[in-house]
């Protein structure tokens, strides 16, 4: 688990609590906990009930448990082990799976939630850190079960028409959880807050002094943790996905966690990291992953036409920065 967590911390989004205005906002009340296999921070500005941080983290943990593919009894686990029969799941599980089907269509099948057997083969679906290159025969066998079009939603039920398929919501669920935590804080009257779930940042309202939020984007190369710049934004979501988030080295070759559902191997991409500003963290989560999957040229077209997209910053493997949409980035 240590190897995976370090990768996330090296390439992610951090938020600047102070900002850049002459008048500084009062320090927020914040806490960091380990959830979702990463470090999660929630910061609240202004008056609020003392129990809110605990309640927000408890909400995140409850959603994480229901979206987990490895926790026995979770909604996703029950769908995966139902032998192709329909399973009644919570509305939020239906919502995320339904959204994922739309992103499967948008990406031409590259964004595929039924990649679970492949993720497990590579060792990326758990927190043990036991990752390795699987035998080619096992990859090919797992590929037979990968096709998002076999996911069938009917009312509050989900089923997999191929009983061997396995859902993995890792490319979209964390964003949904960030949105849920942000929505909870809004419902409890919080005027300004930041929910940062390991690079999935959902912003609530504004700072007490009215200054903008500044989201720092870390350098994806070399593991130094240096910033390549900051994104200035109002109430929105900022999400980063990168090939450096989870990776391992075997026989001198680097393998990352973003798998191509057509080859079964880490996708060959010219993007090291994609930061997306969107109307929700779930949208940003999915679109930033799609950018890695399709590469820089196609990402500009696909993301630019996606509902809820605001702007994006792509960091190519050669260090080139590509910005498009409505994004205020300062290097």
Helices, strands, pairings?
Layout: H1 2-10, E1 13-16, E2 29-35, E3 38-45, H2 52-67, H3 75-80, E4 87-88, H4 91-106, H5 116-122, H6 136-143, E5 151-154, E6 157-160, H7 173-187, E7 192-197, E8 200-205, E9 213-218, E10 227-233, E11 237-242, E12 247-250, E13 253-256, E14 271-278, H8 281-294, H9 296-304, E15 309-316, E16 321-325, E17 328-330
Antiparallel strand pairs: 1-9, 2-3, 3-7, 4-6, 5-6, 7-8, 8-11, 9-10, 10-17, 11-14, 12-13, 14-15, 15-16
Radius of gyration: 19 Å
The level 1 CATH classification is Alpha Beta
Q: Give the strand line-up of the largest sheet.
A: 2-3-7-8-11-14-15-16
* Topology pattern, helix = H, strand = E: HEEEHHEHHHEEHEEEEEEEEHHEEE
Seen as an oligomer or otherwise, the chain set is single chain
C-alpha end-to-end distance: 32 Å
Whole-number count of domains? 1
CATH superfamily: ApbE-like domains
CATH architectural label: Roll
Largest sheet: 8 strands, antiparallel
Strand content: 25-35%
Q: Low-confidence parts, pLDDT < 50 over ≥5 residues? A: 1-23
How many E-type strands?
17
Average pLDDT confidence is: 89
* Classification by helices and strands: alpha+beta
Q: Work out the helicity level.
A: 25-40%
Structural features, described:
The chain has 331 residues and is an alpha+beta fold. The protein has a single domain (1-331), classed as T-fold, CATH 3.10.520.10. 30% of the residues lie in helices and 28% in strands. The protein is built from nine helices and 17 strands. It has helices spanning 2-10, 52-67, 75-80, 91-106, 116-122, 136-143, 173-187, 281-294, 296-304, and strands at 13-16, 29-35, 38-45, 87-88, 151-154, 157-160, 192-197, 200-205, 213-218, 227-233, 237-242, 247-250, 253-256, 271-278, 309-316, 321-325, 328-330. The strands form four sheets. Strands 2-3-7-8-11-14-15-16 form an eight-stranded antiparallel β-sheet, with helices on both faces. Strands 1-9-10-17 form a four-stranded antiparallel β-sheet, with no helix packed on it. Helix 2 (52-67) runs antiparallel to helix 7 (173-187) and helix 8 (281-294) runs antiparallel to helix 9. The longest helix has 16 residues, at 52-67. The radius of gyration is 19 Å and the shape is globular. The two termini are 32 Å apart. Residues 1-23 have low confidence and may be disordered.
